[in-house]
Specification:
alpha+beta; three-stranded antiparallel beta sheet; 2 helices; about 10% strand
């Protein structure tokens, strides 16, 4: 089950469970749409993979016990350990390779 992390690891923007701005890689690294497009060039700075829109966890239990009420999102804020120049350099090196080929 996804952690549903509460923030962009780069700019620290809040990304609540119903955000349509949250992007994740296959390891659940979480960034906002702006950072993915403008800074990271669709390159996860942690694993080198690409990003997809993070699914929204339902607010209401349409099936018994299945909703954000029963499986709450993570409250742990995660921040990248890399500086902006390091992020840009890393993504510049591999952004020309499609995510499926990385």
């Amino acid at each position: 089950m996804l952690d549903i992390r509460p923030n962009c690891e780069c700019c620290d923007k809040d990304l609540p469970t119903d955000s349509t701005e949250a992007m994740i890689c296959s390891y659940e690294c979480t960034f906002c749409r702006d950072c993915v497009a403008d800074l990271l060039n669709n390159v996860c700075p942690n694993c080198g993979g690409g990003f997809s829109l993070r699914p929204v966890r339902p607010r209401h239990s349409y099936r018994d016990g299945v909703s954000v009420i029963h499986q709450p999102a993570s409250e742990e804020r995660v921040h990248t350990r890399y500086s902006t120049p390091e992020l840009q350099s890393f993504s510049d090196d591999i952004k020309h390779i499609s995510p499926a080929e990385r």
